Structures are given as structure tokens and as C-alpha cells.
């Protein structure tokens, strides 16, 4: 049951916080790490469109995304320069008036925060534990990189890892473009080819990655990933009685498997073959925490390693940290509330998070007509731009197509602060910033 928006007034209802069952974790090994938009705006590429809400789906005054202005909507941002790996990056370097640029101010504020380099943060604690695992089991063979610049070329992010020209991940619906040839990296694999060309054969790359995405408890437009690569020579598999691909596959799974409830799922990645996803059971559902596989020979050949084989994995640190630390919402990783940050200490992996708030959610529904250019990721970008991390989830709850072929969607937005109770007035104020009736 939902309420359509009328004249800027909203109905809301509150419910008790969902209880998240904890998942028991035992002593750590890499296996147990599970290797480990007073007008509303809608972004289409970098353009913004105004729209109105209907009283009902069938009225002619319904929301439309067909009129786009040329001005890009921006939210105020405090910092104008960040420093990463000794390089100073100005806001103007990332948030541009380039026609292909779709990086909002809110994303720029995340550059340089580098949660993975904070020893007392769950992401940093997890990274260090994985580093220790590889040091112990591979005699310090793996080189580690955790301060590489997240602004990379389209070539490095896509071409060098064999992502097809028509692949959906290249779309500006999925990727943050600085300009037509530069992006915020979508994965730490963006550094893979460069490091192979340098001669690296065993390496781990950790960093913040950026993807336009949906809004819920396990998705956020900025997260942290670790890339692992191990290159083998013919001498490694020569006496094993299996071919290079089989040898690399066996070694990969042996490295990543463990005692937690997990499963392997065959999948497709353009840069590995065969390819797998490793899933763990969390909050009563299977959660994919990493993708991996045997590296495509073409990538190795382009790097001068024509006779070699290799495996590679990409691990999402947040998802694994949510399991190990019992953290129920991905937004918490960005909290500066001492009630969160004080619960974790350097080297203490798997300390269970103690919730400090049980504030109820506030739900608001909105319906609108959609055009062919509509995407849910664009809607979520607008919602995040207006309400930031107060938004817990955006979910499609109804879809209707009339006799003229026009389609209307109804979305439910769940607001919930991790730190305090939200009032109906402030949520209505947020909604009114996004709506003209």
C-alpha cells in the first residue's frame, strides 16, 4: 500500500528498525575473510530536468523527465583540494562543466578520505589482516599498493582489461566520467596492466572505487576494493600434470576458500576465463563478496608475459567487513560519530559492532511518469544529492503502463539516520527541496 504525492504534502509511516541477525564467525584465516535532483531535478548524463508530481497515475500533470536544462545541479562542498599519493587534486579537476562530466560534489568529498589506510577503521583493519595473511602464506612475495590515484584513463579502466566497447559498465549510468577519456576508477583492476608492465608478478592493490548505484544497506557509490594478482611461470605447473589454466584455478580456490558458509558461482568477466564469484551467507541471504578467475591470456601477452598464466581476484572490503564486524548498514563506514569509531582498534579483526541507535525509519512514496531516458541509478543520484546519507533505501514498489503506452513508477524512499531521530518536518523539507507542484 502506498500514498501518491499530492501538492507537496506527504504521508509517512514509521516502523521499528529491522533486526539484523548476526552471523557467527570463527578464528580468522584468509578463507574466513572469504577471499577472502524550489524544482526537482533529475540527472540524465550531466543534464537536469524539472518535473511535477501527479495526484494519480492517470492525470495529465504527471511527472515527466522529457525537458532537460543545460545547467548541472551542484551541491555546496567544503573542501576544494584533496591530496592523494602526494598529488594535489582540485575540485575543478574532477567536477567540471565538461559535457561528459557526471561527477557530483558529494562524490568529490569522498576523494582522499581513504578509509582503507586508517588502522583503526574496520576497512583498514580488514585490509591489514589480509596483508598479513598473504605475507605469512606467500613469504612476503606480494607487493602492496594502497595509495594509487583513483582518477584513471578510460583505457586503463576498461580497454586494458578487455572490457568490450559496448559493455554496460562503460555507460555514464554506471560510471563517473571526469571527461570523455577520464573516469573515477570502477575497480582496482584499473591498475593491473600498468603493474604487469612494470614487471610485478605478485601484487595486491587496495583503494576506493566509484560506481553509480542503487541505494540500500549494502550499496554505496564509493566503496573499497582489493585486487590480487599472482602470475605463474611454466615451471610452476610443469610437474603438476595439469594445464596452466587448471593449475591457476586450483591455486586460486585453495587461496580463497575457508570455513565460513560460502559457495562458488560460475560467472562471466571480460578479463578472466574461467570466472567465479565467491558468495557468503549473511543476513539470511547470499552475498557476493568477490569476483575472480584465471586472467585472460591477452592481458598477459600485452604485458610481455606470453608464456605465463595468472589468477586475479577483486574483493569488496565493505561487504566482507559487514560480516566480520556485524555492521548492518554500509553508510556506517563513513560515520564520524565516536559511538561508531571508538568501537574499533588496530589489529582487532572481527570485533562485533554494538548498535548505538535504534531510530525508526521514515518512509515517503513518490510516483512519476518516466521517459525512455530514465534509469534508477540517475534517480538515486538525485536522491543522494538532496538527502545524502539520511537515505537508507530507494525501492520500486509499483509500475503502471496506461493505454497510451506511458509508464509510471512509484518509489518508496526510506529515511533513517544512523545517529539521531529524524523528524517528519525535516524529511518533508528535504522532499520539498526536490519537488514543485
If you had to describe this structure to a student in words, what would you say it looks like?
The chain has 437 residues and is α+β, with helices and mostly antiparallel strands. The chain has 2 domains: 1-17 and 38-70 and 358-437, Alpha-Beta Plaits, CATH 3.30.70.380; 115-341, BirA Bifunctional Protein, domain 2. It is 21% helix and 26% strand. It is built from 12 helices and 18 strands. The protein has helices spanning 91-94, 105-108, 122-137, 154-157, 192-198, 234-237, 244-256, 297-302, 317-325, 338-341, 376-387, 424-433; strands at 42-44, 47-49, 68-69, 81-84, 87-90, 143-145, 151-153, 177-179, 182-184, 202-210, 222-232, 262-269, 272-282, 285-295, 309-316, 362-370, 391-401, 407-415. It has a 7-stranded mixed β-sheet with strand order 6-10-11-15-14-13-12. A 3-stranded antiparallel β-sheet has the order 1-2-3. The radius of gyration is 23 Å and the shape is globular. The model is unreliable at 1-77 (pLDDT under 50).
Amino acid at each position: 500500500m502506498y500514498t501518491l504525492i499530492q501538492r507537496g504534502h506527504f504521508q509517512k509511516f514509521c516502523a521499528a528498525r529491522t533486526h539484523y541477525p548476526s552471523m557467527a564467525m570463527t578464528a580468522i584465516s584468509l578463507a574466513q575473510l572469504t577471499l577472502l535532483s524550489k524544482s526537482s531535478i533529475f540527472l540524465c548524463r550531466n543534464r537536469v530536468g524539472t518535473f511535477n508530481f501527479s495526484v494519480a497515475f492517470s492525470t495529465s500533470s504527471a511527472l515527466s523527465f522529457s525537458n532537460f536544462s543545460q545547467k548541472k545541479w551542484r551541491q555546496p562542498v567544503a573542501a576544494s583540494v584533496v591530496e592523494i599519493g602526494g598529488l594535489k587534486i582540485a575540485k575543478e579537476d574532477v567536477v567540471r562543466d565538461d559535457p561528459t562530466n557526471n561527477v557530483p560534489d558529494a562524490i568529490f568529498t569522498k576523494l582522499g578520505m581513504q578509509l582503507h589506510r586508517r588502522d583503526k577503521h574496520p576497512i583498514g583493519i580488514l585490509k591489514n589482516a589480509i596483508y598479513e595473511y598473504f605475507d605469512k602464506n606467500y613469504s612476503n612475495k606480494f607487493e602492496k599498493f594502497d595509495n594509487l590515484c583513483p582518477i584513471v584513463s578510460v583505457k586503463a579502466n576498461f580497454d586494458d582489461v578487455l572490457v568490450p566497447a559496448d559493455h554496460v559498465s562503460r555507460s555514464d549510468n554506471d560510471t563517473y566520467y571526469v571527461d570523455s577519456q577520464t573516469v573515477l576508477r570502477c575497480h582496482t583492476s584499473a591498475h593491473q596492466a600498468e603493474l604487469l608492465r612494470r614487471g610485478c608478478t605478485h601484487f595486491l592493490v587496495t583503494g576506493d572505487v566509484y560506481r553509480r548505484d542503487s541505494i540500500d544497506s549494502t550499496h554505496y557509490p564509493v566503496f573499497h576494493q582489493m585486487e590480487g594478482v599472482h602470475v605463474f611461470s611454466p615451471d610452476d605447473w610443469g610437474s603438476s600434470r595439469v594445464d596452466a589454466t587448471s593449475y591457476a584455478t586450483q591455486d586460486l580456490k585453495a587461496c580463497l576458500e575457508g570455513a565460513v558458509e560460502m559457495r562458488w558461482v560460475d560467472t562471466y568477466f571480460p578479463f578472466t576465463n574461467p570466472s567465479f564469484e565467491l558468495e557468503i551467507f549473511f543476513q539470511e541471504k547470499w552475498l557476493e563478496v568477490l569476483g575472480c578467475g584465471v586472467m585472460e591470456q591477452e592481458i598477459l601477452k600485452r604485458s610481455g608475459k606470453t608464456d605465463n598464466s595468472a589468477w586475479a581476484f577483486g574483493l569488496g572490503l565493505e561487504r566482507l567487513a559487514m560480516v566480520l564486524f556485524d555492521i548492518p548498514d554500509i553508510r556506517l563506514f563513513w560515520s564520524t560519530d565516536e559511538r561508531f569509531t571508538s568501537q574499533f582498534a588496530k589489529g582487532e579483526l572481527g570485533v562485533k559492532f554494538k548498535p548505538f541507535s535504534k531510530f525508526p525509519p521514515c518512509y515517503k512514496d513518490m510516483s512519476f511518469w518516466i521517459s525512455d531516458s530514465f534509469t534508477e541509478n540517475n534517480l538515486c543520484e538525485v536522491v543522494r544529492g538532496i538527502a545524502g546519507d539520511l537515505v537508507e533505501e530507494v525501492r520500486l514498489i509499483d509500475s503502471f503502463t496506461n493505454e497510451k503506452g506511458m509508464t509510471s513508477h512509484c518509489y518508496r524512499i526510506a529515511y533513517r539516520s544512523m545517529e539521531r531521530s529524524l523528524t517528519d518536518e525535516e524529511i518533508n523539507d528535504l522532499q520539498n527541496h526536490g519537488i514543485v507542484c
